[in-house]
Amino acid sequence: MAGVESEDIGSKSVIHGLYDRCMDWISGPYGAYALFLIAFVESSFFPLPPDVFLIAMCVAIPLNSFRYAAICSVGSVLGGAFGYGLGYWFMDSVGMPIVQWYGLSAKYEMVQHYFKEYDVWIVGTAGFTPIPYKLFTITAGFVHSNFFTFMIVSLVARSARFFLVAGLIRKFGPWIQTFINRYFNVLSLLFVVLLVAGFALVKYFL
């Protein structure tokens, strides 16, 4: 047990160190580039979500909130394409080790089932909610989902997520940061309900 606990503490300290380093990067003169890079790598293997850094930059300069959201969205979607490529060409050598490193092997089987049932549209849920987006980008490549549809769905979902955060901060100021952190899961669930309802309406009327 002591060995497991020490491993968890070591993992947390690594994550905390990465967080501190990323905060230093976004606080510097090349903050926007750092935000883009963080959003890019998070979509395939990086453990820290870009939202926390997007929020910090939006709080620092609210007038640039939508610009930061756009940077975050583009970086994340391009990173998603990279994750798709890992799953498509390098699943055994790179993709699966990433899945295993995060302890998501069991969930990976479930995600494959979701792809069989909902195809690439399931990426829309992962792109907006706290579900690990990287797990879905890699799996989408492995199951050879339609790449064009994957990119469109990712762009819509990731942009909705990041622009919602940026819009709330721009409108209400720094105090909304606590609200977002506390109720992001609820907001995500609401969005998914609306998304599913929208798909149902489109399917019904078309």
TrEMBL record:
- Quote the protein name from its UniProt record: Cytochrome b561
Q: Which UniProt keywords apply?
A: Membrane, Transmembrane, Transmembrane helix
Q: Name one GO cellular component term.
A: plasma membrane
Transmembrane stretches in the record are 33-61, 68-91, 182-205
Q: Which residues form the signal peptide?
A: none
Q: Does the keyword Transmembrane helix apply?
A: yes
VTT domain spans which residues? 49-169
Q: What organism is listed for this UniProt entry? A: Desulfomarina profundi
Q: Does the keyword Transmembrane helix apply?
A: yes
